[in-house]
Amino acid sequence: MSRLALAALALALAGCATAGSSAPAAARDYYGTLEPMAADAVYFVVTDRFVNGDPNNDQREQGGPDPATRSFDRPVAGAPAGESDNIGYLGGDFKGLLDNAGYIRDMGFGAVWLTPIVDNPDQAFTGGEAVTWGGAFQDRGKTGYHGYWGVDFFRLDEHLPSPGLDFAALTAGLKRHGLKTVLDIVANHGSPSFTMPQDQPKYGEIYRDGVLVADHQNLPPERLDPQREPLHRFFRPQKDLVQLSNLDDSNPALLEYFVDAYSQWLDQGADALRIDTIRHVPMPFWRSFAARLRAKRPGLFMFGEAFDYKAENIAPFTWAENGGVSVLDFPLKERLAEVFGRGRADYARLDERLYLQDGPYANPYELMTFYDNHDMARLDASDEGFIDANHWLFTARGIPVIYYGSETGFQRGRAEHAGNRNYYGQARVDAGAAHPIHAALKRIARVRRDSPALQRGLQLNVLLQGDRAAFYRVYQHGDTAQIALVLLNKGDAPADFVVAQYLQAGTWRAAFGGAETVIGKGESLRAQVPAHGVQVYLLDAPVRDPGLAAALDRAMAHARRR
């Protein structure tokens, strides 16, 4: 059974045991999740667009001199003055990532998610619809710089490693810096496979460690003949996403291929997997895939991308019977953009998307929370909006994911083919520490890194209204007991808070400043939080307050855990 499923079962049993239990509250278990990955906030990089640490692996001559097929540095035409976008390779690699592992760890992150590492085609794609400024679902002229156009899932793309720095060496190096590796994987599709004027090398082809096992042969899907042509048997004869090959998940050989391929990268040090386009592949495949990988790596944490803002549509992937794969929290992301973007909506907009009790997810505390990524417009917010968003992400339920550059508001508001995936570079990394978003992110991320309550604790909301939010996170399990009270103010002026509900007597320590506040039985905690500020009060003690215990008992009993 997966760690996700085991945690869900433990939570269900704990909920039944604590509801109405006669055991003292100090002896009961209270937690949102026991998943180890919940301790690690995640920094997400499109590897080619982060930092070019080794110009010798740039492959600048790849694709030849033909402007239609050359692969390095392909600016998108039609950009407004001062704007840019690029659909060619730009040189980011493993060395650039490892060289900056200290920068990532120093911000408070515990894991790095990097885009797929497998071999991609060597030329720009000549089929499909031409990429235009600000366009979407357009691929002509584009390269596989992002890694999602896999050709040989057993081999590294040559743009990434350096001598002495293959994937195993990268993961080992990241571990030395205290960082886990989250590997992005694809099982739904390979490279663009048809509509080329002339068939191009590698496009529509799939290899196993250099041996050709499938070839779309530049044929439209309806002309494939998997019954008679062995090279077509990895593909479905129906179109799915643009010109990408539509892999046939019902073919047992395909499952074997991907289990073997991704087992190889797990053996080389990947700690967790992010699954691309998970909803384009049926549940039975993921159930089998997850079971096979977890037989090799018990407790392997995985999360998928199901780009849908309706929780009921993405939650089934998290259920044990469907593989127990967590997901990126798109429904919450939609509201985060409202609340922290230019519109600055009311905090109340977030409440119904938390699903803390009786929700559809196996466990909402294991969802990956984020406000933007590489497939959508970056958060369109002021510096203060980013700061407020990060204050929420690093204190509320879920595992926070920050897209590279968001620590400085890089390319804010820009969508794909309009700058979303632009090159970041060493100069921006070096200058990042001076940016106000970076400073505030580092401040709150380090608090989360050191707080079991913020990482894995149950969340009890006290106030989500206007520009103010107040909630508890409570973790009590084994030898660890911590209560955190979070106060958030996204307003332009200081805000006063008076909290009495669920407040346990004791000596509370302010995470920022370290001042101690002694709270007597029946007293309130009074605090002023600066404009666009946060304060976290910590009480390192078991739960003893009857009102708090009763609320936590209800939360454990009514949290829906599948």
TrEMBL record:
Disordered, as annotated region: 53-77
Listed PROSITE patterns: PROKAR_LIPOPROTEIN (PS51257)
SMART domains: Aamy
Taxonomic lineage: Bacteria, Pseudomonadati, Pseudomonadota, Gammaproteobacteria, Lysobacterales
Sequence ranges assigned to domain Glycosyl hydrolase family 13 catalytic in this UniProt record: 44-448
Molecular-function GO term, any one: hydrolase activity
Protein name as annotated: Alpha-amylase family glycosyl hydrolase
Cofactor (UniProt): Ca(2+)
UniProt entry keywords in alphabetical sequence: Hydrolase, Metal-binding, Signal
UniProt-listed Gene3D superfamilies: Glycosidases
Signal peptide: 1-19
